[in-house]
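Hi D.,

Good news: the full-assembly prediction came through. Inputs first.
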Amino acid sequence: MFGDINYTFLFVSALLVACSLMSVTRSSMIYSLVFLILVFISASLLLLLLESEFLALLFVTIYVGAISTLFLFSVMFLDFKMLEQRRNVMKYVPLSLTIGFVLLAPLICEINNFFPTIPKNSLYVDNYFDWYDLIDSTTDIEAIGLVLYSHFILHILVVGLILLSVLFGVVHLMNNTNKNSNKQQILFKQLSKTPSSRFSYKKFSKILKINDTKYG
Amino acid sequence: MIQNTDKTISLSCDFSYNFASFSLGAEYFIAVSTLYITVVMIVLTRQVWCLNLQKFLSEYISLILIMACCLIINDNVSLSHEITLNNSIINDSIGYWSKLTICFFASIFFLIIADTLNGQKLVSFEYLLLLLLAVEGLLILCSSNDLLTSYLAIELASFSSYILSGFRKDSIHSAEAGLKYFIVGSISSAFLLFGISFIYACSGSIVFSDLADLFCTKIIYLPYYSEYLAHYDKILVQYQGVAIDDAEAFNNITSKSAQALFQQVSWAHTYGIHWQVVIINQILAEANDQTKYVYPVIAYLNDFEKNSFGLVIVGIIAIIFSVFIKLALAPFHTWSLDVYEGSPTNSTFFFAVLTKLSFFIFLIRFCYVSMLSFHEEWQFYSTWVALFSAFVGSFGGLRQRKLKTLLAYSSTSHMGYALLALSCVSLIGIQVLFFYLIVYMIASVNIWYINILLRVKNPVYKSKFSKELGDFSLLHKSNPALAFSLAITMFSIAGLPPLVGFLAKFGVFLVLVKEKFYFVSAIAVFCSVVSTFYYIKIIKILYFENVLVGKLYYPIKTNKVWFISIFTFILLFLFINPNLLFLLIYKIVFDSFV
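Then the structure:
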């Protein structure tokens, strides 16, 4: 059945499925995140095997470099109750399986309709070698770079405007126009804040006669 | 080399690198002026800390938008029906007039909000620039010809809108509204990309006109004689819903375009493709000789192996649902209530009034131009979503006491009626949709302006702009003219006869009846009657509230209210002479689709 198929492709896709299963089922947030990173890396490997290097590089830079780091960073701040989650997982399994099946089945049906067979000469089948690639090859990155600043000039400009608008938002968020409230780090305040005691800080401040309504 | 020059020139014309087909003058102008204002304001505010130039800057931006209007009008390319910038921009009449409308209303919007910015504590200049960028995105969306440009334009408008709704850092409601809007908007964008990827996977193109060619959507014009209609083998011609068998009619066809149509049909028939020719409606245009008229006929493939286009249908549904989320139509409207209530009033004004038109333009381009062959599929979803949002908008607002949430419900129901006009597949439907949206924009500008002008003197919450309905009580004693114009606008939005809102709603129902959506139109009329309740409740609060002491308002300067007088007059005048708008819209639709 798999006689013609590139075994590397098969291995990497199996790795992807295994890692995604692991990332869903792990109880520890950190472990599932690490498996998620593995999922992203194997997905980028698959893209590399399909000869789309640009997308592979994008996957590594964006998903592994930015998003997973953001996840890790936010996980550090949050104090998760692992055991309760474990208990609740089984409750949602039937529902999630049903929803997943309902969403997936028509898609698979349609895709099988639309792409009925795997063509013999497709890229991930081993029996085909494109000699032109060796002689006159244009990589993905080169091709995209060729059209990006000529054909898609309008799109580049609009993307620049989108980035500008986001930049406005960030600057506005970080810009502290109120000069009087100088922010300083008070170790006592910081250490007294845990998720459980956060809302009782007001009481402490009343007891200690600290006139501070900002953190109440 | 000399021989090649002609070729290169023609090539450059085709790929639109030359300056003659530079078609986005107004958009480039707005973008460049945004950058210019940014630089100037950074320099100014760096010199003088917390320099407050908001009022001046807002009026300046209004001037910029008026100049952008002039640029649109003076653009030679913009009405040329050419597709420029590598198939990404189409210059047709719909895009031209909608861009002009949006620019005009945006400039009025900036004039209106100029005085309220300091009161709402929107004191940093980024707010106005974000509004300007959102307007820019809406303008690009109006004239985009492919799905990628549309996506980017929608993102430009949406990203600015997220920041606009969460702009008040110190208000927890504003932050909540911004976060909600961001999450729902990202889901909507994900759906849009999902649908685009499906359509690209099936067809290999994302350009609207290519898709129209691929899926054989063609609008062809038959000569009109009062008796005959053509019937040829597998061709089914429906005239006002009745299929007429008339074999002789085919022999009578003299016009060249009709002959071309039937040649194509017979060609398609030999290849086993079944065509269905449906006369969409009777826009009568005089042909060369005075006795004959021209019928637009939309020919599309009926059984073009729809099984193999299942993925296209999934893509269409994902795309229109994402646009429905952006328009806050009914099953997806729940974000709009909190976002409208929580965000600063000026931002809510922007979301409620200005953003709607260009999303409808996108829907028209997508559904009517490129995906008309699949009209049965999208018509089903759009009709039911429209009906449901008319229902939810009218019943949800009944017990609502906050003004902004009430207006959110009202906007949901209005978008429902507009979508009903879109979802009956006819050109008259598009005309009615345009008429409805323009009347909606005029009336909502009026309501929101009155809402912004009336600031209740509140000793506790000095910067509070959100109002409850009770805050309007006994307004007719303190400010009778303002109360009168608010009452007029409410009557117009409710759709009562001596005002133009009646004509707008009436047009929607007429088109529905004409296209044989009897059940749908009955429910829509019922919902409209129910929604009249809360509009008239506001008028009751204005005039007949049984209280002795009304609210105190901050005084209003006289020179601020002339917009209100003008728009109230327009609402009255357009009922007396609606042909002014009708003829314009007729021309727009006729130019772009015929």
